[in-house]
Specification:
mainly beta, four-stranded antiparallel beta sheet
């Protein structure tokens, strides 16, 4: 199968970062240019099939591909390091197509893999399972997103399901947004004569 790249966007600069098979590329929005680099200190890291994010508070790219760790790349020095996750030693390893977001309301990372949602302290690596959700048939990658304006993380388990909202700040109720009944994509018109 073709490797699925991991892609993350810096919300402050609008720059886009893409990683796959140990290579790393950056599209700089201000100049509309691509550049590539190989992070220093990485040991042939395979970034595909996993979620990533840009933590602009710490100026780093965060990758959710370790069995119980996160990969980190400093966006200035390009140095690679990892953050060991503690508190989940007996839990199953993370799966492929996992997803990770930065909950800015609480300055924590939220990682979803299969049915588990974990909260991760970005400084210490202390990790705790905070929710159990329905597993997505093809994994939660691209189905799990943080929305600062809504005050929640949303999750779409399948295209036929409701959108789930996990509140990230007080006063926000968990929402189950009903899906719209399917409508035809193409309207057929008949011309007589």
């Amino acid at each position: 199968s073709t490797p699925v790249s991991t892609i993350a966007k810096d919300r402050a600069t609008e720059d886009v970062y893409v990683a796959n098979n140990g290579a790393f590329a950056k599209w700089t929005q201000a100049s509309n240019t691509w550049s590539t680099f190989r992070p220093t200190g990485s040991q042939n890291v395979q970034w595909q099939f996993h979620g990533s994010l840009i933590d602009d508070l710490r100026n780093r790219w965060v990758f959710a591909g370790g069995p119980h760790s996160l990969g980190l790349i400093d966006l200035t020095t390009h140095a690679y390091s990892s953050l060991s996750l503690t508190g989940i030693n007996g839990d199953p390893l993370f799966g492929d197509y996992d997803a990770i977001v930065h909950d800015l309301d609480n300055d924590r990372y939220l990682l979803q893999t299969d049915t588990r949602v974990y909260a991760i302290d970005p400084n210490s690596g202390m990790t705790a399972m905070v929710a159990a959700v329905t597993a997505a048939p093809t994994g939660p990658l691209n189905r799990f997103a943080y929305f600062a304006d809504l005050g929640c993380v949303t999750y779409l388990p399948s295209f036929a399901s409701h959108i789930l909202c996990m509140p990230t700040r007080p006063g926000i109720d968990g929402l189950h947004v009903p899906t719209v009944p399917p409508a035809p994509i193409v309207n057929e018109y008949y011309h007589s004569g």
